[in-house]
Structures are given as structure tokens and as C-alpha cells.
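Case study B.
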Amino acid sequence: EVQLVQSGVEVKKPGESLRISCKVSGYNFTNYWIGWVRQMPGKGLEWLGIIYPGDSDTRYSPSFQGQVTISADKSISTAYLQWSSLKASDTAIYYCARHRRNIYSGHDPFQHWGQGTLVTVSS
Amino acid sequence: EIVLTQSPGTLSMSPGERVTLSCRASQSILSSYLAWYQQKPGQAPRLLIYDTSTRATGIPDRFSGSGSGTDFSLTISRLEPEDFAVYFCQQYSGSPRTFGGGTKVEIK
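Model:
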């Protein structure tokens, strides 16, 4: 069974750094694109970017390029989303999600989702 | 960037009714690379439909998708109580991938 288990709730202050994680099991981590989706309070879904753990090829939405960093550690089947300096506007639920198929083109929807990590940034 | 516009924002429906949700793209979506997700409060989204019209594993056949080019739709043939939720479309044709703003299907 494919599972994506995300790290827990975070409460941070503006300017602080943060890394949240998404540990996967039930499939070969290196062979599927895995990505991150933001959902601000009461709002819709926003695609941040994806990473192919096999070669660390990473693609970002221009809206989030330079604002976040997506990475992966193949040795522990874990993907990460990190910020170097949080802003109040980063307050949201962040989901990790895996593509449906193991195709390198990346033209695929998200089939499997983590439970979400709530990040609250407040002074 | 391909902008997806979903309409209407909210639909008030009764169980048993048929409902059609719309998703319009700002430019043509190639190879029918459009998906639909369902999200219930406090839950992660769930993939319903991919490649415009293919149901994901375990999705009941009352859900169907159609469309091409810039106009796509999701139809629920007979609303069940568990179908009241928010529905999002997503394109995975262009870069970046984008989601529509969502349509909430609420109980009338």
C-alpha cells in the first residue's frame, strides 16, 4: 500500500526557517515524481513544484521559485519542503502528493496524497 | 501559465440530482491532460478523474468527465450524500501545473 506520511503541525515566527517532510512507503521512491501543494485557509489548491527523486530533477511554479526549496533523500524515502525565511503569508496546509504513474515526462496527476502539514506563521 | 476557471463557485443541490461542473482553460490543454479531485473538509484531495475522462481506481461510475481543448466538465449522475464536497480541476499539460479555484457542491 502506498503511503505518504507528513511531519506534524508547525508554529513559527516570521523570519524563521522551516523544513517539513513527507516519508513514503509501499513503492520505489526513486521512480515517481512527488510534489507539494499549498492550501491557504479556506482557499483552493496551489501547485508549488515537483521532484523526481531518482535524479533530483526539480520543477517549480514561477510563483514559488526562490520562495521554497524542494528536495528528496533517497536513502530514507523522504521528500522535503523548506523555507529559509517564513512570512505570515506562508500560513497554510501543505500537502505532499505522488504522481499516478512512473513516467518521467511528469505529465500526470497526483494519485496519492499525504495527510497535510499545517504551518502557522505568526508573531 | 494556463489559468483554469471553474464555475459556478457554489452549487446547491439535493441528493439524487444530476450535477455538471465546468472547468475552462485559458489555452488549449494538450493530450487531454486534465484531472478532477474531490476534497472534503479536513481531508486531503482525492483523485477522481484523470486524462479528462478516465476514472481513478475505486471511483464509482456515477462520476464521469468529458471535454477537450479549453472546455471540460465533471458530471455526477446522481448525487449521493457523500458527494457533497469541493471539486477542483487540474491541468498537467503546461508548466506550471495549475488548479482551478474549485466548485463547492452543497446540500440544498
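Residues 8 and 67 of chain B are 17 Å apart (CA to CA). The remaining cases will be described in the next quarterly update.
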